Amino acid sequence: MTAAHHQLDARHLLCPLPVIRTQDFVQTLQAGDILVVLCTDPGAINDIPAWSRINGHQVLETSEHDGEIRITIKVCSPDTGNPAE
Amino acid sequence: MHETMSNEPRKAIALISGGLDSMLAARLVMDQGVHVEGINFFTGFCVEGHTHAIRKKDRKKQKRNNALWVAEQLGIKLHIVDVIEEYKQVLLNPVHGYGQHMNPCLDCKGFMVRKAYEWIQANGFDFIITGEVMGQRPMSQRRDTMPVVARESGAGDLLLRPLCAQHLPATLPEREGWVQREKLLDFHGRSRKPQMALAKQYGFSDYAQPAGGCCFLTDANYSAKLVDLWKARGERDYTFDDIILLKIGRHLRPSPGFKMIIAREEGESRFLAGYRYRYTSLDPQSHAGPLVLLDGNPAADDLQLAARITARYSQGRDAETVDIQVTDPQGTSRTLTVSPIPASEVLPEWHV
Ligand code: SF4
Fold first, then answer.
1. Is residue A82 part of a domain?
2. Which residue out of A15, A17, A34, A59 is catalytically annotated?
3. Which member of B29, B64, B174, B189 has the lowest number of beta carbons within 10 Å of its beta carbon?
4. Mutate-to-test residue for ligand 1 from B17, B105, B140, highest number of ligand atoms within 8 A of CB
5. Which of B344, B27, B330, B312 is nearest to B162 (CA)?
């Protein structure tokens, strides 16, 4: 199964709204899907990975360029913490 | 009510504010073998990450969301719920009124527990945990008001307060043996010592210790700015942008028709710049200085005055003239050359 790629634009939202939008979006995705979140609040660089860790999702990459933060998350199955392959 | 297989643990949702009390309450119940997840409500007034992120002097401090941090320390999931819109009714029309400032704590607690109650019904959880301590807060955590929260939220005896359970009638989780009442605590009063001792015992350090409460509504200055906003607009209402901007900058109201939001340092200037599409903004050109937003409907005279005040807060405060760029929300700019207003003419009552 190929993973679906999604993007969430959370730019100009203040924390914790980027986390809330990420959480709500991930709920609609399947294990194994890839989500790229774009944001501008510097707090998101800590908060979204923290949220991902406690909810068992995997952060593949974070980067920051010109004040724009990109966080790539691999959605994992909520119970096992494993991405479905 | 959710039926649980006999060997499956009971499930509880813990209201996690990011402070120590709710962290301890959740942990006490986890220790009894209950499956606990956290829930955190974002009202817009929460003392959270973004305000730390804005101010430059705070930049070195780790920017973290305390509720997420608590959940990670406890090793539990956290559900963050955006209640910005719904919360308006709580703040604008609290049945039980306000505390010392604009904090409607009793209604607020009832609201949050009600949301948690709805959540457990939708998600098959068994009960609700809060970190309330009897006698700790003057409004929502008194012997006579704690039952009000349980009753008005609809949660009734599914609401467990592990830190002071021994002072309260046994709840369903205690009567059913989902948790052992003897292992719950009897904290009361305003002292924080028992909580700190318990935190030490659990090895929790570096937890957040908000001074007044969990939100800006317990802050005198913030509340004054909120009331000023309602007065100036002639109606009690607010948008999310309004309540965020009340957290930032110096606020001056030189006339009833408009208010100036003046950045106090670079980080705030940068943050306020993100609102230029909504507000008229003033930006010193000939000298370094703060970005200023104007809230309200400034007339031409007002703009002149606002420019002179802006000049006062710029590096050109002692110069003959300062050039101030004035930009309307549509992006049209013009430059006003003004003399900075003397300090003595900045009236104390302008400060909101
Ligand atoms: S301090 Fe603020 S968030 Fe906490 S109960 Fe009072 S009104 Fe609600």
1. no
2. A15
3. B189
4. B105
5. B27
